[in-house]
């Protein structure tokens, strides 16, 4: 008969019947009733009303019944703390029972009941159980100390339980040692500065002795504890590695990964010329390979850890490339991880078989996997120079398949190959241009535009190709727009006489018709460069580009060291430090590998989290005040250099955007700088006209002295402020931030007594003086007023960062409104 019958009852008045059964004299009936109570509790019914009746059932010799009652107590003690005290005497009595299972059960349950009133009664039984003659009771009591510490840390310290736990590390039973280590590690994590695990060679020896005899989970606790120890020298490090190495052949993958973590950490202290170092490298490979024969979920965890190990020590698995070849029935997440590791292990010795495998993957049906495979071919070309030609040939073969997403990925990686090997494989550009019409993904379009702009002098119809992209400029993604702007400027600098209209068109689109600040700023910069100094423009835009690095996706070395110290944990799967995803005080300790053998760093201090005095001080982010002060006090005033006078009345529409300033570019060549800034370019239009004088470079007659000023927008509607409408914008004049306001009276009465107040904001902005509205505001009248701002106000981060909340007052009434501070 199964226990499912306890879950099928639908009787009314069930609680009353259970109460009667719980108080029955028959033991079997009582046990059946408790089972029904536990079943009801399991499915979410409230059976707390039966608390006193269930507690009465504790007085029994039946172990099964006692377990059920303890289970009920753990669940409801928190909601019935006063009644839970009724059970204390039974707990204390059970802690002295002749049966060690009952003693352990009692102390375990008391540790799980998180009620402050009970914890003080727990101390004496716990002290006895920590020194119990039976190891099962002692190991249970060790874990109970950690639970009690979580409830009341001060009580545990006052009662001396931590010292007793430390003594248990020397216990004769390996499971007691393992649980004592686990409990101390748990407590140490929540109190990083307590130095509870004061490890020394004698303690380490005891842990290593217990390692061979305890259960698999006990081994994991001990191995994790060993990983936090810093050996005194390379001899001790080698000795520990020799005693941990047998754990690599354990059946439990968690034990294997914990052993790998210890060995990876202690290998840092071994000299590379030591014979044992080479032996250890060979011993690490087979267990890692064995992990890949497990089920897919375990494979994924193993692969994420192997990814870290390969970045740190690729020599461990350099001869094991074939085990990372993808199987047809692997899940996509396993395939992608294997692909990543294959690239990391690629070398001149195995590149032929890797490329053959990748070419095969590129014909698979899984689109995501095919994309990654094509990218992997490009990464191989960049990593192994000798294989670059073969990789390019493979990519061209894939382009000939005319499969849309394959072609697009191939173009993206060929762009990177051009960056790595300039002037070497440009003969393939004609093939790429044939596929121009099929590109519909932003990254592929941006890559193709970059290629056309970079090699415009080799493409006869480069201007036509770029013009075809320009037709739908506003429909393109930002990535494509930015790349198109740069490519056309490059083309113009290489072929100025043929493409002047094209560059005028793109600069106008980028600066006048776009609301994207990145695109607009880049357009202004190019416009200013081209108009003032074409020679400088050529030096900047057509400058020789640095070669791209072999591995762009390597984890930063300091983070990699920390993740190696967390092998076998979630941190190694996420590839993030614990502090990035663990809330609260736990997991925020930053670990690092011990200093390498012969590096000269001190190994005396056991605190491996501290950096040595010889290291360069880390770069720090400036304090908020400094950062904001610098940000808001940029000196954008006009330069003192004299500029020829200009005509202020010139309008943008009639202006030759790239006029006479480019004479040297189009006539005498790029060798000579222009004699003077042309009048047509020097005259900036009014704000409404578009471009403005972005960098205050023209301090002459008729030039506005300030940065770009956004048009005023309505900040406070009249219907929300009893007829007062406020429009405004922000500007900078003479290095001072100004808030330009337009106050409009849309009410029927005169408005007076204006004042303004700012809430705390991200930039510490506050009025530098009172709001000067000198005359009353009559109905239907508008007054323009400028309010100077200071950056000395209180700072508080806002969402969004540039949000500015203000209170406008008149006639002693206040109206709250918000504005966004424009960059």
From TrEMBL:
<keyword id="KW-0472">Membrane</keyword>
<keyword id="KW-0653">Protein transport</keyword>
<dbReference type="GO" id="GO:0030276">
    <property type="term" value="F:clathrin binding"/>
</dbReference>
<dbReference type="InterPro" id="IPR008152">
    <property type="entry name" value="Clathrin_a/b/g-adaptin_app_Ig"/>
</dbReference>
<dbReference type="InterPro" id="IPR016024">
    <property type="entry name" value="ARM-type_fold"/>
</dbReference>
<keyword id="KW-0813">Transport</keyword>
<dbReference type="GO" id="GO:0048513">
    <property type="term" value="P:animal organ development"/>
</dbReference>
<dbReference type="InterPro" id="IPR000225">
    <property type="entry name" value="Armadillo"/>
</dbReference>
<keyword id="KW-0007">Acetylation</keyword>
<dbReference type="GO" id="GO:0012505">
    <property type="term" value="C:endomembrane system"/>
</dbReference>
<dbReference type="InterPro" id="IPR016342">
    <property type="entry name" value="AP_complex_bsu_1_2_4"/>
</dbReference>
<dbReference type="InterPro" id="IPR011989">
    <property type="entry name" value="ARM-like"/>
</dbReference>
<dbReference type="Pfam" id="PF01602">
    <property type="entry name" value="Adaptin_N"/>
</dbReference>
<dbReference type="InterPro" id="IPR002553">
    <property type="entry name" value="Clathrin/coatomer_adapt-like_N"/>
</dbReference>
<dbReference type="InterPro" id="IPR026739">
    <property type="entry name" value="AP_beta"/>
</dbReference>
<protein>
    <recommendedName>
        <fullName>AP complex subunit beta</fullName>
    </recommendedName>
</protein>
<feature type="domain" description="Clathrin adaptor alpha/beta/gamma-adaptin appendage Ig-like subdomain">
    <location>
        <begin position="708"/>
        <end position="816"/>
    </location>
</feature>
<dbReference type="InterPro" id="IPR013041">
    <property type="entry name" value="Clathrin_app_Ig-like_sf"/>
</dbReference>
<comment type="similarity">
    <text>Belongs to the adaptor complexes large subunit family.</text>
</comment>
<dbReference type="GO" id="GO:0016192">
    <property type="term" value="P:vesicle-mediated transport"/>
</dbReference>
<feature type="region of interest" description="Disordered">
    <location>
        <begin position="581"/>
        <end position="622"/>
    </location>
</feature>
<dbReference type="InterPro" id="IPR013037">
    <property type="entry name" value="Clathrin_b-adaptin_app_Ig-like"/>
</dbReference>
<dbReference type="Pfam" id="PF02883">
    <property type="entry name" value="Alpha_adaptinC2"/>
</dbReference>
<dbReference type="GO" id="GO:0030117">
    <property type="term" value="C:membrane coat"/>
</dbReference>
<dbReference type="GO" id="GO:0006886">
    <property type="term" value="P:intracellular protein transport"/>
</dbReference>
